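Why does residue order matter? Because the sequence determines the fold. Keep that principle in mind as you read this record.
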Amino acid sequence: MESQEDQGDGELTRRSRLRRRGRYFYGWNIVAASFMAHLAYAEQFSSTLGLFFRPLRREFGWTNTQIATVQTISRVVEAASAPLIGPLVDRLGARQLLPIGALIAGVALIAVTYVDYLWQFYLARGIIAAFGFTLMGSLVTSVAINNWFVRMRGRALAISNAGASISNVVMIPLAVYVIAEYGWREMFFIFAAITWIVVLIPSTVLIRRRPEDLGLRPDGDAATDIAHSPLEHAPPSGVIPETEAAPQREAAQPAPEFSWTRGDALRTPAFWIIAGCFAIASLAFQGINISLAPYVQELGYEDAIVAGALTTRAVMMAVTLPLVGLAAERTSIGPVRALPFVLQAIGAALFLLADRVYFLFPALIVYGVGITSLSVTQEVLWANAFGRMSLGAIRSIGFVITFGFGATGPIVMNFIYDQLGSYRPAFIIFLGFFAVSAVLILFLRPPRPGRPFSARV
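Structure:
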């Protein structure tokens, strides 16, 4: 039976914990800055670039495949630079990288407005802009957020990704209007201005590397709080954590965290299952994304319908993000991991019937929610499997594989179109890719823990 002194100490501990939890957690500032970076990154999305196909064809006579190749080049650049950038995120943090990326991307987007030849377009938009966007893109922001959140990383990543969805809600109709009224070059000027405005100051002021740098713990927990994510490493069976074996009056220690080398991670089945599933899916959705606007236009819909359909997709992506984030925190459940791929497969099937408008909008909505689920679930799975401390180094290798496959998607999609005069065969093939990924991800199991990481630096 507890003494009154023990009960009093317990009550004080509970009150102290409640007070600490009641304070605003600085990690939400990291989410806010990442949200702003996603607002700017939307220009790099394939579906936005698809709006420029028609004016670029008219002015320069380039084919769809030639224009789509710039997205392949972008993906190759992002994949090739990721292994260098990943360790920098672990060592320096996103605060050093995001502003540099914004400066480079903004200058490159302005340079696009001066191109006269295809190689210049590839250089400015495909190489220089892509490198800048890699420094301020999902590789950097997701690692930053995953360093600050464990239990709540799904919802934190979902809020951050909402920036991209909201950007599409605004940018797609804006781009349609500006291109029609003023020209495609003016829209690239707007992209550059937005990139500088929403990234430079917020990232410099708000971003910090890890909660430990400010004397905090992930999720705003007190040092005595212990929580593991569903795939996060638990102590080996038969081993009693020190926090359970220690006397109740002593302060508990944080749950152990683990550090991985790239070589150790590459030897785990979990790495290859995660990388393989999202690589296959990336090839499919990168190909579909860049061709959505041209495909809908080829079906005979007016530009207003195209803009309305893509905007509807973006709105639904933003609205469903809170649910997506909560679901992603339950990735220990196989069907939750498979859901993003299933949604995209259903969306691809509906696109085959999209010549009827009552199938077009459901196709865009289901497919869009699948993209949102894919982006959030992917980052949660990487962080849950390999922890926070070396996530940039490990995630960047997965980034190479995923974006390497994704780089071929735009070329494959538009090569099929240029050869056969239809996107339908590509939709059928990509539907199969999503189905394969949905099955493979069910076999994911947590990897064995790496080395304990004790240096909180």
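The longest strand covers residues 257-259.
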